[in-house]
Amino acid sequence: MRFLKVNNNGGFSLTKEFIGNNIPEYAILSHTWGEDTEEVTFQDLKDGTGKSKAGYKKIQFCGERAGQDGIQYFWVDTCCIDKSNNTELARAINSMFRWYRDAHKCYVYLSDVSGSMSNNFHQLPWEPAFRAREHLGDKKTLEQQIHQITNIPIAALRGTPLPQFDVEERLLWAEVRQTTHGEDKAYSMLGIFDVYMPLIYGEGREHAFKRLRKEIQNSLTENEQYRKYIQDLRVTDPREDKRRIEKTKGGLLKGSYRWILEHSDFQQWRDDEQSRLL
Length: 278
What we know:
This protein is α/β, with parallel strands linked by helices. It has helices spanning 42-47, 56-68, 86-102, 127-131, 143-150, 154-157, 167-172, 182-187, 190-193, 205-232, 238-248, 254-262, 264-271; strands spanning 2-6, 12-17, 26-31, 73-75, 105-109.
C-alpha cells in the first residue's frame, strides 16, 4: 500500500510501498470521480505535474484535513495506485474494501450534494461546501440519508457483520452504483463478500457478476464445510467418542481427515524437506 505523506511545509509526497503488517495509521479519501483528464494520477505525482488539474484540490483537502487530525499518511485512489501496472491494480481493487475499513479516518467528497441539510438534501451540489471546508456531517449523523440513497441497512452502517445479511440483499446495495466501467460494479462488491478474483476488463458487467456469484458460492460452500469439520472436532466425552467411532468404524471423522490431507498448507509442509520431523 502506497501513501501520500504530509510534509512539514504543508505539502505532501509519495511514500515507498508498505507491505504486510507494517502499515502506519492513515486517512483515506472517498470521492466522486471527475473526468479522467482532470484527475491527478500516480504518474503526475511522479513527474511533479498535475497541480493544475481540478482533482488536485481534493488531494490537497485530504492532506490538510489529515494534518489537522494529526495523521501523517493519507491515501487517494486516483494517484496512489500505479494503474499502468496490472498486477498492482488488481491487488489494489481486491484489497480496497479492507483498506477503507482499516483507515483511521475516511473523508468523503460528494460532488452533487449541498451543505444545506434540507429535505432536498441529495438534489443539491456539494461543491461549494467542500471548497469552503464545511463539515457536513459523519456516518452517524447522516446514516438515514445514506440508507435512503444506497438501500444499505442502518444495521450494516452501524457495524453488524456483513455475513448476517443474505447474498441477494447485499448484491442490491450496488444496484444504483454508477461506475466508469461496467465490470467495476461487480468488482466493487468483492470486499462485501470477502472473496477475491482476477480482473478481466472487457468481460462486461454480466460476465463479471457471473464470476462474482461463482466465487460467492464457492466461499459459502467452503465455510459450510469448515463449520461441519469444526463441529465434528468439537470437545466431547472421550468415552462417547469411542463408542461413536466404533459404531461408525471411523466414518464420523473421515471427511475431516481428507480435508487436512488435501489442504495446501499441509501439503506444503509435507513436501518441504526442512519441515520433516524424521
